[in-house]
Amino acid sequence: MDRRRDHDVVCIEAKKILDFCVQEHQVERSFSVQGIPAGTDVEVVCRIDTQNITCREVSDRKPADDHGKKKLVCLAIELPVTLKLINRANGTVLRRLNRQVLVPKQVALFVPRGAHVQCEVTADCCCVFDAQNAEVRCVFDLCIAVKSKATVEVLVPVLGDCPPKECRVFDDFCRPVHGRFRHDDWD
Predict the structure, then answer these.
(1) Predicted TM-score of the model (pTM)
(2) CA dihedral for 147, 153, 155, 159, sign (positive or negative)
């Protein structure tokens, strides 16, 4: 069999990350709460629905440098938050609040024409009840990863096919040996 072949070229469409950045960001928010009896020792449990955090561009991109290569990208990050106010003395839930926390963010990225911006956010929160002001005060710690991406076409030289190799057969391999496989028979 002649192993010499003409080299074929394949054009593959793929996503290319053009620029990216990661940043920690902390914000504080307060939420008013009515109807908590005076003198009640309140614990606040904060939960962020991390599966439903949204991040979107909210304005036109503006030049971020004199060369015009980087753009300022303005983002709106929305965190769906559930707050549970619990009476520490008896464990009863006093109030349950569902809120959307909006966090504006601006980053400078290389985003050429045709590229789009993708944002991923992870978040955590810590909240306390301020009885004097009848409000819950929270600190939200965010880790924000922002990428600019574009679809590109890549030429790949093809040196040959990827033929499968023949599976090796072991006559006694699949025979149960005390419910376990013998790992010394693996290639």
Answers:
(1) 0.72
(2) positive
